[in-house]
Amino acid sequence: MAMFKGYQIICKSSSAALSDPLRQRILLAGSTRPNPAGCGGPSAAAKAATSKPVIKNSVGELDSSCSFSEPLFPEGKPSARVHRLSDAPKLGVDCFMKMMPNTTVLLLSSALLLCSAQAVPGAVSPTPPELWKDYDPNKGDFKEEIIRQEVRDGVFNRESYISAYVLGEEVRVYCKYSVKEGAKLAPGLLNVHGWMGAPGIGKDFVEDGWAVLAHDYCGKTGERPHYTKYPESLRHGNMDRNVAGPVNTTTAEGKDITDPKQTSDYLWYAIQRRALSYLEQQKEVDRSRLGASGYSYGGTLMWNLATDPRVKAVVPHFGIGYNDYYRSRRVWMYNVPYTEPPKTAGEEIYLRSVAPEAHVPYITAATLFLNG
Fold first, then answer.
1. Under a CB-based contact definition with an 8 Å cutoff, are residues 1 and 41 in contact?
2. 147 within 8 A of 226, measured Cβ to Cβ
3. Long-range contact list for 151-155, CB < 8 A, 24+ apart?
4. Helices 297-305 and 264-280 sit at what angle, rounded to 10 degrees?
5. Strand, coil or helix: what is 306?
6. Residue of 227, 247, 249, 221 whose CA lies nearest to 236
7. Strand ranges, E, within the chain
8. Which of 59, 85, 330, 372 ranks highest by number of CB atoms within 10 Å?
9. How many CB atoms lie within 10 A of CB 19?
10. Tens digits of per-residue pLDDT, 41-63?
11. How far is 163 from 292, CA to CA, in rounded Å?
């Protein structure tokens, strides 16, 4: 069973192999209250529902194979329309929702069940909103340095470096930006690459009228001429272990983290928010229509961005979180009956403050998770 804001959705996923404790922890982003019958099964109204919602767009219909129950609020039913349906092998983007600030949707694949973040008993580390309350992504001069700028086939393209300010340090962020020449009030899309990836625009979105910004957060690796440049004190922003390598639940010295701001994810979250600020100040962009799409680890980073009130819709694809502890310690693999091993102090901090799934209760953007 799954829910989105205003509705409960009964998703016909093959989740029988997952244990009851997992199913009982389901809570989707933006849901307004738990399943009245308990997360382990549908409500009576849901059982009685028979209609299948079909998400439509200009090129066809996407059958979500779900059944709607009665709405959880009395004032009416929200709608969901897909802005785009693309071939996943071609772009890695299955679809992007038309921006809807008050609707959150989740599609489950036959082998996936998403669960909410669990509060860690006795944890004193901040929640995601508490962690980010003092961070201002608009603060400081961008110090834009244009590397290349041209118009080709009616599309304006620019590569540049901008400054992001994180933990008192300056990071030089490499960005690419493309939009149709002469566009006005174009919806803005932040396109976030995956693990060890590089910024890519997604030309189909530009052709459809989007203003697209892609930024690098991988850092130095190989012989790339352009990449985001982290200062020495933030060298763990570099993904490549030959350069530094990431910090998650333990520091580079192998000790438990004591502050969520020690993590690489914190740096990457901050940088993508700064990149969003750069996108929204472009003259072609309609600031009231900002969205984001992230592939693989870029999809994992979307959970944080979906809590940014400037963002109206996000599509994380093939990146669903639950990496540290659940994946790294194989909690969800070959674990029957389901048990959870004791968490380290670093894991408790990470899971409460930084982990993608920790953001679930605070997501405000319309959200479409795609995974296979």
1. yes
2. yes
3. 151/181, 154/180, 154/181, 155/179, 155/180, 155/181, 155/203, 155/206
4. 70
5. coil
6. 247
7. 2-4, 7-11, 54-57, 60-63, 66-68, 82-85, 95-97, 145-152, 155-166, 169-180, 186-192, 211-215, 285-295, 313-317, 366-367
8. 85
9. 15
10. 333 333 333 333 333 332 233 33
11. 20
Contact call for residues 359 and 128 (beta carbons, < 8 A):
yes
Q: What is the pLDDT of residues 101-138, one digit of tens each?
A: 333 344 333 223 333 334 344 447 999 999 999 999 99
Residue 118 CA to residue 113 CA, distance in Å, equals 15
Tokens of 69: 């129950």
Q: How many residues does the chain have?
A: 372
Q: Full-prediction pTM beyond 0.85?
A: no
Q: Are 49 and 67 in contact (CB under 8 A)?
A: yes
CB neighbours of residue 50 within 10 Å: 7
Task: Output DSSP code: residue 125.
Answer: S
Which segments of 20-112 are extended strands (E)?
54-57, 60-63, 66-68, 82-85, 95-97
Give the helix ranges, DSSP H, for the chain: 20-23, 44-48, 88-91, 128-132, 203-207, 264-280, 297-305, 345-353
- H/E segment holding residue 224: none
Q: CA 300 → CA 30, 83, 210, 239, distances in Å?
A: 17, 21, 23, 15
Question: How far is it, in rounded angstroms, from Cα 295 to Cα 197?
Answer: 10
